[in-house]
Amino acid sequence: MIKRIDEMLKLWAEDLHSPVAESFGGASGGNMIAMLMECKGELIRGTRGSRVLLDESADIELIVNKHLEPRLAQVVREHYCNHESFMRQKLLHCACSVRTYYLRLHEAHVNIEGMLMGKAA
Question: Which residues neighbour 6 within 8 Å (Cβ) at sequence distance 6 or greater?
Fold first, then answer.
């Protein structure tokens, strides 16, 4: 895993996919665009003090939902957003072994880093 991307994904999940974000987001379910629409463009950040910029959270959301291969996106969502399942349940849901799970997670980190860097270039 890439440590910087790991930290960004943890904060992305906390910002957009935690139970707190979903209850705050109402019908938007933590979707950044939907939250902006609900608030008429005036989104006030919470007091959690996220270290991921609003743009980066939106970029990561777009990358995970639209640009990652489905098997990679599934592992990312399971690893960072699903805190209620045990590891064996995550492996069963992703239909892979522990080794494959972490290989996919690393591949997702590499892809996300590449897409974020490509956006900055």
Answer: 109
Q: How many CB atoms sit inside 10 A of residue 53's CB?
A: 11
Closest CA to 50 of 41, 40, 42, 58: 58
Tens of pLDDT, residue by residue over 29-68, are 556 676 666 666 665 555 444 444 567 888 999 999 999 9
- Determine the angle formed by the axes of helices 87-94 and 70-81, rounding to 10 degrees: 160
The ranges assigned to domains in the chain are: 3-16+52-120
Pairwise CA distance, residues 33 & 31, whole Å: 6
- Predicted confidence band of residue 23 (pLDDT cuts 50, 70, 90): very low
Taking the CA atoms of the chain, what radius of gyration do you get in angstroms? 15
Q: What is the pTM of this model?
A: 0.71
Q: What is the dihedral of CA 46, 58, 50, 114, to 10 degrees?
A: 180
